[in-house]
Amino acid sequence: MLKFRQMKRIGIVLFACLLTACASKTEEEKEPEAAVVQKSEEEVKEQAEEKEQVTYDMELPDQYWTDFMKVCELCEIDVQKVHGFDEAENWGNGERYSFQYQDETYQVDFLTDGYVRSLSYQSAADGLWEEYYRRGYTTGYQMGYEAEGMGDYKDVIILVSCDPEPYGEMETLNGQQVIRYHLPAGDYRVTAKTGESGLYVETVAIHEEEGYEVADVLQELVFSAAGEEAEIAVREGECLFLMADTIVELEAL
Fold this sequence. Notes:
Elements: H1 2-53, H2 55-59, H3 62-74, E1 83-88, E2 96-101, E3 104-110, E4 116-122, E5 129-134, E6 146-149, E7 152-154, E8 157-160, E9 168-173, E10 176-181, E11 186-192, E12 197-203, E13 207-209, E14 212-214, E15 217-223, E16 229-234, E17 238-242, E18 247-252
Antiparallel strand pairs: 1-2, 2-3, 3-4, 4-5, 6-7, 8-18, 9-10, 11-16, 11-18, 12-15, 12-17, 13-14
């Protein structure tokens, strides 16, 4: 009887030791699993950060990216910190995108050939939009240029029908508001940015013919396709009038 009790006691002790060993083994097995979970979370975080870092590059169409980076460089905007591109309503002659930079909202307008037409930001103080850059307009931070190669720029003027900037003035002719562009006198090479467009070089002075207010047309350019070129001469007392749906680039000769 005593021997049986001793054997029973030994069995209980052995069973308790076995349970303790199993429990220890289970805890040891859990530790690597926890480490794997923790590592997985860190990897997910790193991947998310990498994805966020290149978001700007992924969301802006490739045809706009090259000139956008050059404009950012001119405006001292760190393109690596630009993020959150969002396609906005078109501005009429091209696409428009908004993006975030240093906790402020910016807006960039593109021409149909992929060049930046203007860059604006929304003031945090009053919510109004302020233009930061416009191609062909050289006041303040704005530096108009056309890229010929990396680091090689030349000044140009971009004119868009129905937009008075730059050089445009609103005038009333025959009871209607029109825009005429008073460029500095000189010779220009004109390149069409859109097809089926054109312009007139005409006198600033207006006279009346058959009851209508008219200017004397000195030269007429008509383009049938984007990329076509022609030359014009603008003298003192002369200005430009753009045909509908016209975007042209003018380079001083």
